[in-house]
Design goal:
The protein is an alpha/beta fold. The chain has helices spanning about 50, 95-105, 135-140, 165-170, 185-190, and strands spanning about 1-5, 15-20, 30, 40, 45, 50-55, 55, 70-75, 90, 110-115, 130, 145-150, 175-180, 195-200, 210-215, 215-220.
Length: about 220
């Protein structure tokens, strides 16, 4: 939400104030490890009362990304040629293997896995949306990924435990970037016949947060 501030009838400068709901499905954002507790603990086992306070996050906030993230990214396009997955599709390890085979590349330890399902997840929570299942989470973990970026994440309606947010993020410590727009990236990769790139994230330096808006950049 944006509000333009009133600075007088002849202001020297025009200013505004922004109110950001970070975990909105319309906003590409980084989920901090504190975003989804497991019972009364925050990854990797810190008591919730010690990690989360009314004035901010003391442990597992998004501060770890404040210096920026720079790594290799690999696009796994699950619906090539601007396609989209069926609403009820649950992405599994076999789907990820097939996408990696189509890309003709490999995943290295510390890479960012970028998954395109061809969806805009800014939909009512009751509307079915495809998502990754537990075998896909195991695949990402087995390949040593350091970050997940996707235009899809957990399926809707949700099933519990939610594979991406309650297992990958909360139990395995894998940071997530939700609600990414990946169509243009997929088009560019197709033109170049190259599905790996340098990935750069530079989140704003706001401390004590459960997440931050980000603008991921793929550099070829």
């Amino acid at each position: 939400m944006q509000v333009v501030n009133f600075n007088g009838t002849q202001p020297i400068a025009i200013t505004d104030s922004l109110f950001v709901n970070t975990h909105n499905a319309a906003l590409t954002h980084l989920d901090a490890l504190s975003h989804m507790p497991v019972g009364n603990q925050v990854y990797p086992g810190v008591p919730l009362a010690d990690a989360v306070t009314p004035t901010g996050i003391r442990h597992a906030s998004a501060d770890h990304a404040a210096a920026g993230i720079l790594t290799r990214g690999v696009l796994l396009d699950l619906a090539p040629d601007r396609g989209s997955l069926d609403a009820g599709h649950h992405v599994n390890a076999t789907d990820l293997d097939a996408a990696l085979d189509r890309a003709g590349t490999s995943v290295h330890l510390g890479d960012a896995i970028v998954v395109r399902g061809g969806w805009n997840v800014n939909q009512p929570i009751t509307q079915p949306v495809p998502g990754l299942d537990l075998t896909a989470v195991d695949w990402i973990d087995a390949h040593g990924a350091a970050l997940y970026i996707g235009d899809i994440s957990d399926a809707r309606p949700p099933t519990f435990p939610m594979p991406m947010h309650q297992v990958a993020l909360a139990r395995l410590g894998l940071p997530l970037v939700d609600a990414a727009h990946l169509d243009n990236l997929a088009d560019h990769c197709t033109r170049l016949h190259r599905w790996s790139f340098m990935l750069v994230l530079a989140p704003p330096r706001i401390t004590g947060t459960t997440g931050l808006p980000v603008n991921p950049l793929a550099i070829f």
